[in-house]
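Annex B. Sample input.
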Amino acid sequence: MLHKKKYRMIIDPPSEGLFNMNKDVELMESLSPTDSPIFRLYSWNPWCLSLGYNQKDDGILKDKLYKDGYDIVRRPTGGRGVFHANELTYSIVTHLDNTRTKDYVYQEVHTLIAEVLNNIGLEVDFVKTNPDFKNFYKSDERSVSCFASSARYELTHDNKKIVGSAQRIFGNKLLQHGSILIDYGFEQIADYTTEDPEKANRLKDFTLKTAIPINAIAPQIINVESLIDSFQTTFEQLNILA
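Annex B, continued. Sample output.
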């Protein structure tokens, strides 16, 4: 059922948050009906806190972020906050139709990423159901972080999230973002979402209990470059490069 579409792959060097988000929007807006879907890979320099399209930012410690040399940006997709540190980010832009729905693409993309991770020796699982997000996000500071919960078809290891993704539909086009954790650093979101040290520690502990990076479970050390290589190799093996 999956892997029927061929993707045009774009690989970009580490860039600042605004450039990364603007390029994804530009790719989405310029995608014509005859174009292949685009699969883009990139990382962030400097590290950056991104907020979901509708997420409130009144509790974010922006001055502290800037003082520490980090950036902040708003994503054009939904979801909650992500601190883009030691990770590889992907984005998908594609057209939707009656069969290629947003749920189909979500499953397809995570199936592809699972094969990439399997090829570097990781055993991953698919989340089978959605949590009750409405009630979950009532739970104090946990509502800030994307990695505080896992949605259906997202990828986990030992019930801990490895990839966090978010979508938004623009007419008949879909933009999907995802953060693939390579190493620790993502938990630092706690330091920029509350001035209360006790709350920050609780959020950090909770995030570390619900998410895990590749290098905590991989048989060999992975970096951005080697993970990109695995993506290219996997897509070539599956014959899905346009």
